[in-house]
Amino acid sequence: MFNIRDINSWRKNFGLFPMYIKPTNRDKYALLNGGQKDFCIDLNPGNDIDQFNSYAWSANTKNYLAVADNRVIIYNWLKSNPEKIKINDIENNIIAFYNYLGKQTYYTGNDVVPFVINLFRKMRNITREKNSPQEALNLLYTLLISLENDLNHLDYEKWAIANVRLPNQFEVFVDELKNGIGKAKPDLGIILRHCSGPIFQEAHRVVQTFYSDRDLFGDISSKIITSSREYSSSHYTPQYVARSVVEQCLKRRNLDQENITIFDPACGSAEFLMEVLKQLYDKQYNGHITIKGWDCSESAISTSKFLLNYEKENIWHDKLSIDLRLVQDSLVENWGTDNDIILMNPPFASWELLNKNQREIVSSCLSEKVSKPNQAIAFFKKAIDALPDNGILGCVTPTSLFESDAYKGIRNQLKEEIHPYFAAKLGNFIFDNALTDVSLYVGQKLTEVFVTPKLLWCRNENGVAQEALCSLRKIEASGLIEKDTKKYSIYSPVSYPDAQGSWKIVSKQDALFKDKLNDALLNGHLVRLQSIFTVKQGIRTGGNDIFIIGSDEYEKLSTNEKRYYRKSIDNEAISFSKLKAKNYVWFPYDNSGLIITSEEQLKVECPNTFQRLIKHKNKLENRSSLNNKHYWWALSRHREWLLKKECRLVSTEFGTTKSFSLDVKGNYVIERGYAWIPKKEFKQSDYYFYLALFSSSSFEKLLSIYARQLAGGDWYDFAAKYTNSIPIPNVNNLGLRESRLYLELVALGKAISEDGSYFYSERINELAKTLFGVEYDKGL
């Protein structure tokens, strides 16, 4: 039976993370679930109701459960009167009770986080700092410290904040903060312990518009318009993510040692560093801790100093040493090898976003040449090298680290030097206002390995990652091994990476299916897609807005001029396996190459096109991708294989199984898409066979396992590097072409190319499932 007083029961049954509301009181907990259904519980309550409301509000929760002798009193700072429920009634209906609490855990503008952010925005309107709001931050630090200190005798050095000139009527802000919301008053220690991350991420936003108008009562406006962060490829680490990474790291760390050094080379506002201190305190660690944090943002280092110094002064005292540094680029610094734990969420800056100097630095961090590496990969590589024996790495990383061929060398080094304990694929819904595909990694530098890693896979939907990480905590607390649902999977594979060397994290069911496919590959019943097809990328015009026109404009052209245009296959051109191209692309080529070889010929043959292109002559002449500058009207990359009109299996660039079709006569030009060119001569029936196969649910499952999923749904990148390894039947296998299964799929392929696959999906799916078995039956 559930025991409401047993804090571990909340972890086992609901995956909640218990953390002391205040470190000095071990009877009062915040039970945390990533902002969803969080609440406070007090196992030894007094009679100070105002304190209950203040604690719940300051911890960014709604409900405060005071557990008395035989009943629970629920205080909610939004409500006037508390509720009283018998403990037996709660324990006998614990799921319904927890769901009831969850219904009251909704966001309001009066929550502590928006309340403090509102004050900070007023400071920004006063200081009018667009980028790094140092003065506004120091005003906010001063305002917060006023909850515990007299402003007239404030020790600025003690709190690691600058002595700024306070604006007129600053005491008005002090009063507003101290008054809180109704009976809920702010508690500084609780706010900084539980809410510092989401509050101080506000400092990394760039202000576009200030509002200096005062309201009716003369108050400063809190209205500002912000845009991207100060450095757009660095993203605030959500508390539930930092909490889970730190939790997994500390499970592997020997806490009996006298000293621990913890390092974050991209510390931001100290989300990881604050989290590890909270968890170490709750685990009653008694040794000395050295915290090292670097960042290139002045605001980030300023915030980290304030938060960590508050922790030191109020909790750790001489047991905590703090080394925070403002650096130009952490990648050029010496990380040392004394880091017992490295925690980080490095900037996810793509190669295209890096300047020349940054590219050189990133490349210098990698031991082998990597094509266009992400900046985060360089951080990961340096972390591997900076770990001593038994050192632990816990980090947020781009999913490409596990899946991209470019990083195979780094994965090989990782496999040799660090044993993974935990790896997770969380998807594209982790960072606010960013669609970065996010994964987690926790590993340790060990000479001997005894533990099988645990993998966590999330369906790429909003909110699933929080649910999955909560479930991970729940099953670990309950001693369970795994959990497999449609939304997420948590399991321990036989090996990681798998026997084929793949690091990609998939669901447990997909992993089992993949094992069966590998057996079929070994037996020769299936082959890799790259042994059947070469996946060819479409043309690159060098100016789509110039060279591509709509059907209305095309119809206005003369018959002669129309022959220099072809229907264009882009991401909108295929619907349910049927070609429905709406645009036309300039394509002045025939079997021998470029047809129009002079500007005069262009003017005479294509007068309308000439008038359109000549306006952009300078731009077109200066395309770096253009082979011959003299032919400025040519496409940047016309693709030699497109010159000959022939039957082609085609697809969009990104899509689903309904994004394949057949261009029977080769009349289309592929722009944003791919051609799937057979490596050996095909019969036309073979094209229809594979078209039907590629439109099946079985192939969709293969895409989910092997290809890169895009944000926002079950869409995939069809690039060769993601699809080459997909196992498919070989049409040349003995007996396949003579089977009824083949003949029916060919007929269905013809039907869907003409009518769309919607009407035939069910039968195609049935046949494809049979086809991915291990035997072909001629009588099928």
TrEMBL record:
<dbReference type="InterPro" id="IPR003356">
    <property type="entry name" value="DNA_methylase_A-5"/>
</dbReference>
<comment type="similarity">
    <text>Belongs to the N(4)/N(6)-methyltransferase family.</text>
</comment>
<dbReference type="GO" id="GO:0008168">
    <property type="term" value="F:methyltransferase activity"/>
</dbReference>
<feature type="domain" description="DNA methylase adenine-specific">
    <location>
        <begin position="213"/>
        <end position="442"/>
    </location>
</feature>
<dbReference type="GO" id="GO:0032259">
    <property type="term" value="P:methylation"/>
</dbReference>
<protein>
    <submittedName>
        <fullName>SAM-dependent methyltransferase</fullName>
    </submittedName>
</protein>
<keyword id="KW-0949">S-adenosyl-L-methionine</keyword>
<dbReference type="InterPro" id="IPR002052">
    <property type="entry name" value="DNA_methylase_N6_adenine_CS"/>
</dbReference>
<keyword id="KW-0680">Restriction system</keyword>
<dbReference type="InterPro" id="IPR050953">
    <property type="entry name" value="N4_N6_ade-DNA_methylase"/>
</dbReference>
<keyword id="KW-0808">Transferase</keyword>
<dbReference type="Pfam" id="PF02384">
    <property type="entry name" value="N6_Mtase"/>
</dbReference>
<keyword id="KW-0489">Methyltransferase</keyword>
<dbReference type="InterPro" id="IPR029063">
    <property type="entry name" value="SAM-dependent_MTases_sf"/>
</dbReference>
